[in-house]
Amino acid sequence: MSTRLSIAHAQKALADLKHATDRCRECPLGARATQAVCGEGRPRPAVMVVGEQPGDKEDRDGHPFVGPAGKLFDRALEELGWRREQLYVTNAVKHFKFELRGKRRLHKTPAQREAAACHHWLEDEIDLVRPHSFLALGATAARALLGRPVAVTRERGRWQEDPTGRPVLVTLHPSALLRGDPAQREDAWKAWLEDLRIALPRKA
Ligand code: URA
Q1: Is the CB–ligand 1 distance for residue 110 below 6 Å?
Q2: pLDDT for 21-73, tens place per residue?
Q3: C-alpha 1 – ligand 1 centre gap (Å)
Q4: What is the domain extent for residue 26?
Q5: Does residue 54 have its Cβ closer than 6 Å to ligand 1?
Q6: Could you tell me if residue 204 is inside a domain?
Q7: Does any domain span residue 172?
Protein backbone atom coordinates (compact mmCIF):
# COMPACT_ATOMS: atom_id res chain seq x y z
CA MET A 1 0.00 0.00 0.00
CA SER A 2 1.36 3.49 -0.85
CA THR A 3 2.02 5.86 2.08
CA ARG A 4 -0.89 8.11 0.99
CA LEU A 5 -3.29 5.18 0.87
CA SER A 6 -2.11 3.77 4.16
CA ILE A 7 -2.58 7.19 5.82
CA ALA A 8 -6.10 7.46 4.36
CA HIS A 9 -6.78 3.93 5.61
CA ALA A 10 -5.52 4.85 9.11
CA GLN A 11 -7.71 7.99 9.16
CA LYS A 12 -10.83 5.99 8.27
CA ALA A 13 -10.00 3.33 10.86
CA LEU A 14 -9.41 6.03 13.49
CA ALA A 15 -12.85 7.51 12.77
CA ASP A 16 -14.37 4.02 13.23
CA LEU A 17 -12.41 3.61 16.44
CA LYS A 18 -13.85 6.87 17.77
CA HIS A 19 -17.39 5.58 17.22
CA ALA A 20 -16.60 2.31 18.98
CA THR A 21 -14.92 4.15 21.90
CA ASP A 22 -17.95 6.38 22.23
CA ARG A 23 -20.12 3.35 22.95
CA CYS A 24 -17.67 1.86 25.47
CA ARG A 25 -19.17 1.04 28.86
CA GLU A 26 -16.35 -1.17 30.14
CA CYS A 27 -15.98 1.21 33.10
CA PRO A 28 -18.51 3.65 34.62
CA LEU A 29 -17.03 6.78 33.01
CA GLY A 30 -18.64 6.40 29.58
CA ALA A 31 -22.18 6.61 30.88
CA ARG A 32 -21.61 10.00 32.60
CA ALA A 33 -19.48 11.72 29.97
CA THR A 34 -20.89 13.63 26.99
CA GLN A 35 -18.82 11.66 24.52
CA ALA A 36 -15.53 9.85 24.08
CA VAL A 37 -12.65 12.12 23.13
CA CYS A 38 -10.15 10.32 20.94
CA GLY A 39 -6.89 11.59 19.57
CA GLU A 40 -6.39 13.98 16.70
CA GLY A 41 -3.55 14.75 14.36
CA ARG A 42 -1.40 13.12 11.82
CA PRO A 43 -0.89 9.39 11.39
CA ARG A 44 2.80 8.31 11.30
CA PRO A 45 3.95 11.35 13.32
CA ALA A 46 7.37 11.81 14.87
CA VAL A 47 5.66 12.02 18.26
CA MET A 48 2.36 10.87 19.76
CA VAL A 49 1.50 13.05 22.75
CA VAL A 50 -0.53 11.29 25.45
CA GLY A 51 -2.36 13.13 28.22
CA GLU A 52 -4.52 11.84 31.05
CA GLN A 53 -8.17 12.23 30.11
CA PRO A 54 -10.41 14.88 28.52
CA GLY A 55 -11.37 17.77 30.77
CA ASP A 56 -14.67 19.65 30.96
CA LYS A 57 -14.18 21.59 27.72
CA GLU A 58 -12.78 18.61 25.83
CA ASP A 59 -15.78 16.55 26.94
CA ARG A 60 -18.19 19.14 25.58
CA ASP A 61 -16.28 19.94 22.38
CA GLY A 62 -15.12 16.42 21.55
CA HIS A 63 -11.48 17.40 20.91
CA PRO A 64 -8.38 16.71 23.04
CA PHE A 65 -6.46 19.47 24.81
CA VAL A 66 -8.68 22.43 23.90
CA GLY A 67 -9.09 23.75 27.48
CA PRO A 68 -6.60 25.62 29.70
CA ALA A 69 -4.03 22.77 29.75
CA GLY A 70 -4.24 22.55 25.97
CA LYS A 71 -3.66 26.29 25.62
CA LEU A 72 -0.51 25.99 27.69
CA PHE A 73 0.64 23.06 25.59
CA ASP A 74 0.02 25.08 22.41
CA ARG A 75 2.12 27.92 23.81
CA ALA A 76 4.97 25.49 24.44
CA LEU A 77 4.66 24.05 20.93
CA GLU A 78 4.86 27.54 19.48
CA GLU A 79 8.05 28.26 21.46
CA LEU A 80 9.52 25.00 20.19
CA GLY A 81 8.57 25.68 16.58
CA TRP A 82 6.01 22.87 16.23
CA ARG A 83 2.38 22.84 15.18
CA ARG A 84 -0.25 20.47 16.51
CA GLU A 85 -1.01 19.19 13.01
CA GLN A 86 2.50 17.70 12.88
CA LEU A 87 1.78 15.53 15.91
CA TYR A 88 -0.90 13.16 17.11
CA VAL A 89 -2.42 14.24 20.44
CA THR A 90 -4.52 11.89 22.54
CA ASN A 91 -5.29 10.73 26.10
CA ALA A 92 -4.79 7.53 28.08
CA VAL A 93 -8.45 7.60 29.19
CA LYS A 94 -11.08 8.53 26.65
CA HIS A 95 -13.99 9.68 28.85
CA PHE A 96 -14.08 12.62 31.29
CA LYS A 97 -14.17 11.70 34.96
CA PHE A 98 -15.61 14.40 37.21
CA GLU A 99 -17.47 15.14 40.40
CA LEU A 100 -20.32 17.61 40.53
CA ARG A 101 -19.85 20.66 42.77
CA GLY A 102 -23.09 22.57 42.31
CA LYS A 103 -23.27 23.03 38.56
CA ARG A 104 -19.50 22.72 38.09
CA ARG A 105 -17.94 19.49 36.92
CA LEU A 106 -14.60 19.15 38.66
CA HIS A 107 -11.88 16.93 37.21
CA LYS A 108 -11.21 13.69 39.08
CA THR A 109 -8.13 11.60 38.41
CA PRO A 110 -9.11 8.30 36.78
CA ALA A 111 -8.66 5.21 38.93
CA GLN A 112 -6.12 2.66 37.79
CA ARG A 113 -8.91 0.17 37.00
CA GLU A 114 -10.51 2.79 34.70
CA ALA A 115 -7.20 3.50 32.95
CA ALA A 116 -6.65 -0.26 32.61
CA ALA A 117 -10.14 -0.76 31.12
CA CYS A 118 -9.39 1.99 28.58
CA HIS A 119 -5.93 0.75 27.69
CA HIS A 120 -6.94 -1.34 24.69
CA TRP A 121 -8.40 1.77 23.02
CA LEU A 122 -5.07 3.52 23.37
CA GLU A 123 -3.23 0.49 21.99
CA ASP A 124 -5.64 0.36 19.03
CA GLU A 125 -4.95 4.03 18.38
CA ILE A 126 -1.18 3.46 18.59
CA ASP A 127 -1.41 0.54 16.13
CA LEU A 128 -3.20 2.76 13.62
CA VAL A 129 -1.18 5.94 14.16
CA ARG A 130 2.24 4.22 14.31
CA PRO A 131 4.23 7.08 15.85
CA HIS A 132 8.02 7.03 16.07
CA SER A 133 7.99 8.00 19.74
CA PHE A 134 5.76 9.05 22.63
CA LEU A 135 5.55 12.04 24.95
CA ALA A 136 3.70 11.14 28.15
CA LEU A 137 2.18 14.11 29.97
CA GLY A 138 1.73 13.14 33.61
CA ALA A 139 1.57 9.98 35.65
CA THR A 140 -1.54 8.40 34.13
CA ALA A 141 -0.12 8.64 30.60
CA ALA A 142 3.32 7.50 31.75
CA ARG A 143 1.88 4.44 33.45
CA ALA A 144 -0.31 3.59 30.47
CA LEU A 145 2.69 3.74 28.14
CA LEU A 146 5.42 2.24 30.32
CA GLY A 147 3.18 -0.38 31.93
CA ARG A 148 4.25 0.43 35.50
CA PRO A 149 3.76 3.18 38.08
CA VAL A 150 5.96 6.18 37.25
CA ALA A 151 7.27 8.90 39.60
CA VAL A 152 7.12 11.71 37.06
CA THR A 153 9.35 14.19 38.90
CA ARG A 154 12.09 11.56 39.20
CA GLU A 155 11.81 10.11 35.70
CA ARG A 156 11.04 13.19 33.66
CA GLY A 157 13.04 14.47 30.71
CA ARG A 158 14.88 11.38 29.46
CA TRP A 159 14.13 8.76 26.86
CA GLN A 160 13.00 5.39 28.15
CA GLU A 161 11.66 2.32 26.42
CA ASP A 162 8.30 0.73 26.96
CA PRO A 163 8.15 -3.08 27.35
CA THR A 164 8.08 -3.46 23.55
CA GLY A 165 11.05 -1.13 22.97
CA ARG A 166 9.09 1.97 21.90
CA PRO A 167 10.75 5.28 22.95
CA VAL A 168 8.82 7.21 25.60
CA LEU A 169 9.68 10.54 27.22
CA VAL A 170 7.82 11.42 30.42
CA THR A 171 7.19 14.92 31.69
CA LEU A 172 4.71 16.86 33.79
CA HIS A 173 1.12 17.29 32.72
CA PRO A 174 0.47 20.96 31.80
CA SER A 175 -2.22 21.14 34.54
CA ALA A 176 0.56 20.63 37.09
CA LEU A 177 2.14 23.87 35.86
CA LEU A 178 -1.19 25.69 36.02
CA ARG A 179 -1.73 24.48 39.60
CA GLY A 180 1.86 25.02 40.74
CA ASP A 181 3.26 27.66 43.09
CA PRO A 182 3.05 31.04 41.26
CA ALA A 183 6.50 32.01 42.62
CA GLN A 184 8.01 28.97 40.89
CA ARG A 185 5.98 29.24 37.70
CA GLU A 186 8.68 30.74 35.50
CA ASP A 187 11.27 28.12 36.51
CA ALA A 188 8.73 25.31 36.16
CA TRP A 189 7.83 26.55 32.68
CA LYS A 190 11.49 26.65 31.59
CA ALA A 191 12.17 23.16 32.97
CA TRP A 192 9.08 21.83 31.22
CA LEU A 193 10.17 23.37 27.92
CA GLU A 194 13.56 21.69 28.33
CA ASP A 195 11.83 18.30 28.70
CA LEU A 196 9.60 18.95 25.72
CA ARG A 197 12.56 20.07 23.61
CA ILE A 198 14.11 16.60 23.99
CA ALA A 199 10.98 14.95 22.57
CA LEU A 200 10.33 17.76 20.08
CA PRO A 201 13.70 19.04 18.86
CA ARG A 202 13.68 22.00 16.53
CA LYS A 203 13.69 20.81 12.95
CA ALA A 204 16.70 21.74 10.81
N1 URA B 1 -6.02 17.14 30.18
C2 URA B 1 -5.67 16.03 29.50
O3 URA B 1 -4.93 15.19 29.98
N4 URA B 1 -6.18 15.86 28.30
C5 URA B 1 -6.98 16.72 27.71
O6 URA B 1 -7.41 16.47 26.58
C7 URA B 1 -7.31 17.89 28.44
C8 URA B 1 -6.82 18.08 29.67
Answers
A1: no
A2: 999 999 999 999 999 999 999 999 999 999 999 999 999 999 999 999 999 99
A3: 34
A4: 3-199
A5: yes
A6: no
A7: yes
Residue 98 Cβ contacting ligand 1 at under 6 Å: no
Angstrom distance (rounded) from CA 23 to CA 52? 20
Are 164 and 155 in contact by the 8 Å Cβ rule? The answer is no
Q: How many domains does the chain have?
A: 1
Residue 80, in any domain of the structure? yes
Mean pLDDT, the chain, rounded, equals: 96
Atom of ligand 1 minimally distant from the CA of 65: 6
Q: Cα(68) to centroid of ligand 1, in Å?
A: 9
Ligand 1 centroid vs 65 CA: distance in angstroms? 5
Q: Is 131 in the pocket of ligand 1 (CB under 6 A)?
A: no
Question: Is the CB of residue 39 below 6 angstroms from any atom belonging to ligand 1?
Answer: no
Assigned domain for 27 exists:
yes
pLDDT in tens, 93-129: 999 999 999 999 999 999 999 999 999 999 999 999 9
**At 202, is the pLDDT very low, low, confident or very high (cuts 50, 70, 90)?**
confident
59 lines ligand 1 (CB under 6 A): no
CATH of the domain at 188: 3.40.470.10
